[in-house]
Automatic annotation (TrEMBL):
Ranges annotated as spanning the membrane: 24-52, 58-77, 89-113, 119-142, 154-177, 183-204, 216-235
Gene behind this protein: speE
Amino-acid positions noted as binding S-methyl-5'-thioadenosine in the UniProt annotation, renumbered to this chain: 260, 333, 367-368
Record's protein name: Polyamine aminopropyltransferase
Broad EC category: transferase
Record key words, sorted: Cell membrane, Membrane, Polyamine biosynthesis, Spermidine biosynthesis, Transferase, Transmembrane, Transmembrane helix
Residues noted as binding spermidine in the record, renumbered to the chain: 291, 313
Subunit details: Homodimer or homotetramer.
Recorded topology in the membrane: Multi-pass membrane protein
Domain of life: Bacteria
Similarity-based family: Belongs to the spermidine/spermine synthase family.
Catalytic activity, EC: 2.5.1.16
Reaction equations catalysed: S-adenosyl 3-(methylsulfanyl)propylamine + putrescine = S-methyl-5'-thioadenosine + spermidine + H(+)
Amino acid sequence: MIDQQVPLRRGATRLSVRPRTGRFLVLAVVFICAACGLVYELELVALASYLIGDSVTQASVVLSVMVFAMGIGSLLAKRLRGRAAVGFGLIEAALALVGGTSALVLYASFAWLGESRHALVGFSLAIGILIGAEIPLLMTLIQRVDRQDAGGAVADLFAADYVGALVGGLAFPFLLLPMMGQLTGALFTGAVNAAAGGALVLWVFRRDLGRRSRRLLIGVNAVVIALLVTASVLVDDFERAARRAVYGDEVRVAVQTDVQEVVLTGRGRGALDLYLDGRLRVSSRDEHRYHEALVHPAMKGAHQRVLILGGGDGLAAREVLRYPDVTSVVVVELDPAVTRLARTDPALSGLNGQAYEDPRLTTVTGDAFTWLRGTHDRYDVVVSDLPDPGITASTKLYAAEFYGLIAGVLEPGGRLVVHAGSPGSRPTTFWTVEASVRAGGLATRPYSVGGRLTGFAAGPDRATGRAESPRDWGFVLAARQRLGRLGMDPGAPALRTLGERELLAGRRSAERVRQPGVPPSTLVHPRYWEEP
């Protein structure tokens, strides 16, 4: 809370600028600092969601801790009102250093320690305290610049603060993130923050500073800016070293797209791993078991027209295209970089059997939910090959409403198959998917397949500290009509490992961990929380 008992005195006689100019400069710095503060906040939320997962939880942690810390910072700042100018200068230098390097340290803790939650809370607390200390000191400074009642000063300060927050909030996703990336964007923001705070104090309020205070501020700001500039020069080397720590030494492709980070590791078809946003999505060591189990049970029956939602790597399409009577396959993929790699990367295109060269296959770039709302086509088979469900951007793709849209594009005898996570390690999530499919108006047959060789070497699953990786995959087969026995189409190609006996065993295995009464997930009530 701002103390309104600060004496109103004519500080203009001690300023190096006119009172009106000084007031404008103070408000301009408020604007810049507010923009920088919000960038730090958004940077923590974005990076934490990428490294730890569950974006709702991470945003809640960052925002709640930061707002709480701002209150602490406001109270602590009362002790600095007697030396408001030098106090504000030092606080801005500290905020620039802590905020500017926060993304760097958060990523380093994840890469080398495998844990970033404690660093996230620590940075949220530190940045919140420093931001909270700004306004009381700025209130003192602006009242010293020009004679103004406390209410008017508060109105001016908060107006500049809120407008700055708006600009910072828009600059982060539309300028900083696409042009500089997360790490360089945070370092650049810290340099701007330090320069603005230091310039205000050392120019407008320099007559309030003793010689030692002036030298201290100049030295501190020079060191902070030098550290941030040095870090920005070395950030590419740091990213490569951190990437090797996370993914190993055989990183062949690393691309930050508008949607996600795409990383390919391994030197050949026999050793290929595909990571999306730090999570292992495909491994050549066992992907055939996953994709055979995903595709072939759904192909029992009419399957001339097939729709694949996700699956931009082309591996589900590879299995579908093994049926000679398939006439068309449509792949709806959000990230065009994934489909581009699936076409052009020798190892990945070799693994998917050059599926994108087949004239029967058509690709669509877009969000599967939005695309389904606009299509009027009908399909015999729909394959949902999407990322694991969670409280993230993919949550709506595991909602009952999404499955209702799919039901609308199925032919009367058509079938849907959904990758639903691991029933062995995440049974609640698996049965929530099954309940959501049923809520979308479809009959279901859940099943699982074991023999999973690879878990998750990076991303949220690494950060949870789980002792064991998932050892199975879970699926839900669904149709508008009652489903018969799980099995294969009479014209199914020869498979490497999957057979009807294994499917029936997988059906029984899934049923053993059934959780009755699990409610479905909907758009307004998502239910995919992380399981212990």
